[in-house]
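Sequence, structure tokens reproduced for absentees:
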Amino acid sequence: MKPLQVGLLGMGTVGMGTWKVLRRNEEEIARRAGRPIRITWIAERALDVAREATRGVTDVNLTNDAEVVLAHPDIDIVVELIGGIEPAKTFVLKAIANGKHVVTANKALLARHGTEIFAAAHAKGVMVAFEGAVAGGIPIVKALREGLTANRLEWIAGIINGTSNFILSEMRARGAPFAEVLKEAQARGYAEADPTFDIEGIDAAHKLTIMASIAFGVPMQFEKCYTEGISKLTREDIRYAEELGYRIKLLGITRRTPAGIELRVHPTLIPARRLIANVEGVMNAVLVKGDAVGATLYYGAGAGAEPTASAVIADLVDVTRMHTADPEHRVPHLAFQPDQLSDTPFLPMAEVETSYYLRMRVDDKPGVLADITRILADRDISIDAMIQKEPSEGEAQTDIILLTHRTREKNVVAALGAIESLPTVAGPVIRIRLEELN
């Protein structure tokens, strides 16, 4: 059977991995797809990189002009692996307008412009596949869209950024400060020279936005995601969390509630006995709760050339299988039929309910704890656990660590404002959210 022809945009880390895995496993992939899948065009600005990677291969064409690939009549599928918003958005929309299916691993593009891109693809009758955009080699998109389709999904909680997970794992294991471990992550190639997207939760928020849309059948709304990173976490808080039986992870959490959908990324205390709390290093894990199946956990490499290439090529196989299918009978981009997407509101962070870890530096004198607990009680915040440290010799201040029961974020914000105004409390109160995930 005639091969399906692929145009690859970008020969970076994932592009190179896709080229190598597809060539290496070409026969196996063809047996699964029902026909061969061949990359016949590669667009890459650094042509010498593409030439070196394809040395000795005669059936592939190279160009530094993506427009050549987008317009080529023989190309069936365009694989966009250049990343970023522009020119990726323009290229994807042109490919769709030219009647070509698209495979992309671009989470930022989809989180911000996915609604527009999917609408264009639906109108043109082509597919946009994006397994590689979320959690690298973990097939979480397929699980949410297809494997769990019988369920009313209730919540998702994921470790979906390997860089931040490596940093937190090393801070816990070695007691090292954040800045030191960040430098190590950069030296190992886990973190970029500018690590902002990873350590401030933006990368995780892109991925969470995509998963929430698939889970709950709502349009992509990245701007509704509350985002807080790990750059202000201290080894003291990681140590105190451990004493209380918890570990701190940067979690992406989305939950369906009667009042709306929660969409939030932030450091989170998780009970150490939970499997997801024991995911270490650069690995990713996603916990999904469905009403019928219960909790299911998906674990694996969340980034890297070949793990992400695995997801990209799985999308190529899916598109190949469905290439000739009636567009109305394909799996919808966001799991739900396009005319069945919901306008369910997203909850503002102030209205989210969760538990909290609170650490405060206070004067070591009678009545301080009573003042603090009174402020919390006045705002309907009850205490679940407490540690009060003995002051070091010669010091007049000590740490109090509180764990609260579930309460509303705005109540905690108000309480912390009142506590910080007490003359016996030094500096800001450290607040980290807590989820039992049970």
Q: What stands out?
A: Residues 140-301 form a domain with the Dihydrodipicolinate Reductase; domain 2 fold (CATH 3.30.360.10).
